[in-house]
From TrEMBL:
InterPro entries: LSM_dom_sf, MscS_archaea/bacteria_type, MscS_beta-dom_sf, MscS_channel_2nd, MscS_channel_C_sf, MscS_channel_TM-2. This is Mechanosensitive ion channel MscS domain-containing protein. Residues 196-267 form the Mechanosensitive ion channel MscS domain. Gene3D superfamilies: 1.10.287.1260, 2.30.30.60. The keyword rRNA-binding does not apply. The chain crosses the membrane at residues 24-47, 67-88, 108-131, 151-173, 179-198. Keywords: Cell membrane, Membrane, Transmembrane, Transmembrane helix. It is found in: Cell membrane. Belongs to the MscS (TC 1.A.23) family. The keyword Nucleus does not apply.
Length: 363
């Protein structure tokens, strides 16, 4: 190598003579430079393969493994590049300084900052993904809802990236106070602009944490005195909850509405009570037979539970009409209607007026 370096071409690559010495020297430099680069690349690729195989057995994210593998390739490649440049010119720092218009003394620090920036950026992303995956995996062992696990994992992912970003700023001696102030102003402006969305997100986090209902439950939501939604919960997300109404439609309700209004979980228990108001004219009413007949008729309907038993009470007498309150229990595991019960009572009392009161929104 010393012999070939002694034959290297002068700094100015002009050819003053046509002799063969300069051509031989240039060919030697080219061969030596290419050989050094190829050898460094082969060594780097071998080391990368070995390192990636070892890291696959750890909990590190795939991106971290690839970044570390790339760094292993860069180290011998950088060393080979330095040797190859040194073959052509001993003043390596002078080359870089002339290209960047810098003082040669500042070049090592600049190169170090660039390398550290790329290294921290890559490792920061990889570490953030690793922390997110470990968080989600760890919380899954405690049977925490998947949406909460994902939210917490993304939160730690963002925090890790922010820390890596401030670390990179410190490398370049950039004051973070101005960035923090600008970020605060932007955050306040965004908060005012999307305050409704933030309300939904906060309410959604509360719903996911407290879990007043689960996917598959049937709930009733009273939004206004005349607006009641009854449906099966299809999904619970951070911003909104989706219901499949008893009519078959899908509705998306913002979580802030769920948080601020009454929500009834119709399927929290295994059974639900239904109420039918029966109005019977005095000529059709018998104190000894009417109420027992109603109870016996309801017991014949399949959807009526035996326990608690159906009951019928005489509630009032208005305008020659007896008003009876009939209560019975039906399963709540699925959406039921009470049309069978109404039809059975109509068959028993064809002249009576029937009005279903409970469950609301089911008929």
């Amino acid at each position: 190598m010393l012999l070939l370096m002694s034959l290297s071409v002068p700094r100015s690559f002009g050819f003053d003579t046509t002799g063969g010495v300069e051509i031989i020297s240039m060919i030697g430099n080219i061969v030596l430079s290419v050989g050094v680069i190829i050898a460094a690349l082969i060594i780097g690729l071998y080391l990368r393969r070995r390192l990636v195989q070892l890291l696959k057995k750890t909990v590190l994210d795939e991106s971290i493994s690839q970044i570390l593998g790339g760094l292993i390739v860069l180290l011998p490649l950088a060393l080979g590049s330095v040797i190859a440049l040194a073959v052509w010119r001993n003043d390596l720092l002078g080359i870089v300084a002339d290209f960047l218009h810098l003082n040669p003394k500042d070049v090592p620090g600049l190169l170090g900052n660039i390398v550290a920036t790329f290294l921290l950026a890559g490792l920061g992303v990889g570490l953030a993904r690793t922390v997110k995956n470990l968080t989600i995996r760890g919380l899954s062992e405690n049977r925490i809802d998947i949406n909460i696990r994902t939210f917490i994992g993304r939160l730690f992912y963002t925090i890790t990236l922010v820390i890596a970003g401030f670390w990179i700023l410190s490398i370049w001696s950039i004051s973070s106070s101005n960035l923090v102030a600008a970020a605060s102003v932007i955050t306040v402006a965004i908060t005012f602009a999307i305050q409704d969305i933030l309300k939904d997100l906060v309410a959604g986090f509360y719903i996911l944490l407290e879990r007043p209902f689960f996917i598959g439950d049937q709930i009733s939501i009273t939004i206004a005195p005349t607006v009641i939604y009854v449906g099966k919960v299809e999904s619970v997300e951070l911003r909104a909850t989706k219901l499949r109404l008893v009519g078959g439609e899908e509705i998306t309700i913002p979580n802030a509405i769920l948080f601020g209004n009454a929500v009834i979980n119709n399927t929290y228990y295994g059974e639900r009570r239904a109420t039918i108001i029966v109005k019977v004219h005095k000529d059709d009413y018998s104190q000894e037979h009417t109420i027992p007949s109603i109870i016996e008729e309801l017991k014949k309907v399949d959807n009526v539970l035996e326990k608690p038993e159906p009951i019928a009470l005489l509630n009032s007498y208005v305008d020659n009409t007896f008003v009876l309150v009939v209560r019975f229990w039906i399963p709540s595991g699925q959406t039921h209607d009470i049309s069978e019960m109404v039809y059975a009572l109509h068959t028993l009392l064809p002249n009576a007026d029937l009005e279903a009161k409970e469950p609301g929104g089911m008929i």
